[in-house]
Design a protein that fits this description.
It is a single chain. The protein is an alpha/beta fold. The protein has 8 helices and 9 strands. The chain has helices at 13-17, 20-27, 64-76, 98-105, 143-154, 164-168, 202-220, 222-226, and strands at residues 2-7, 32-37, 50-51, 61-62, 84-95, 109-113, 130-133, 187-188, 191-192. The strands form 3 sheets. It has a 5-stranded parallel β-sheet. The chain has a two-stranded antiparallel sheet with strand order 3-4. The protein has a two-stranded antiparallel sheet with strand order 8-9. Helix 4 crosses helix 5 (143-154). The longest helix has 19 residues, at 202-220.
Length: 227
């Protein structure tokens, strides 16, 4: 999969994408990450990408010209036959879910456009195939939501995780929270590992895990049950 990220702050991604699962996916050529500095597509020598809003108001608004030029440049460098989406992380988008992560993982390319300041000139939204929100709160820019979405999508790609079963036992993979997990020691301060997990009876273990996942979901996230 090819992921392009258009941002004013490409350095923000180095720590998150330079470790763990994402780094391994890149090193194994399963995932390709490309970063585009939005200022490179500004029209003036001072590299301005924002301006004050018409009608007045606080803050600055991202101008349409640099964003359009950046997206068109990314598209010009990409194979026309790729299945792709241009995504803007935005509070007006649908809330990101595991189902959406699986949907996006089926694409060949995702292009993220990260906003900043007081947001986008409204005409920029015409570029987007999707608006995605990661929750009802305010962040400084689109970089952190992009990191979250890329991490969730990468886990769905074949051969990224050490075990193919790992993603299938994640919370939300099947619409519920994950089941409780245990490891050594068997007895920790009087808290024992459930006997069924030590039984070797895989059918009973599966049944127990399903029941536990359902109970946890009902108790902690009843909204998932309703949905």
């Amino acid at each position: 999969m090819l992921i392009d990220i258009i941002t004013l702050f490409p350095e923000m991604f180095a720590g998150v994408f330079g470790e763990s699962i994402i780094k391994r996916a890149v090193d194994n050529n399963i995932l390709t990450l490309r970063f585009t500095q939005l200022r490179d597509f500004a029209l003036d020598k001072h590299k301005h990408v924002d301006d004050s809003p018409f009608g007045g108001g606080a803050g600055m608004v991202l101008k349409p010209e640099p964003v359009y030029r950046a997206v068109r440049n990314v598209l010009a460098k990409s194979d026309d036959n790729l299945s792709r989406k241009v995504i803007i992380p935005d509070p007006g988008g649908a809330v990101f879910t595991q189902a959406k992560a699986k949907e996006l993982a089926a694409l060949d390319q995702i292009i993220f456009v990260c906003g900043h300041y007081e947001g986008f000139d409204a005409r920029i939204y015409d570029l987007a195939d999707d608006l995605i929100s990661i929750g009802d709160y305010v962040l400084t820019g689109g970089e952190l939501p992009t990191m979250v979405i890329v991490d969730a999508v990468a886990r769905m790609l074949p051969n990224v995780l050490g075990s193919a079963e790992s993603a299938q036992t994640d919370s939300f993979f099947d619409g519920m929270l994950g089941f409780p997990q245990y490891t050594r020691p068997r007895d920790f301060e009087g808290k024992l590992v459930p006997d069924v997990l030590l039984s070797g009876n895989h059918a009973e273990i599966k049944k127990w895990r399903t029941a536990q996942a359902l109970t946890l979901t009902r108790n902690r996230r009843p909204d998932l049950i309703r949905n």
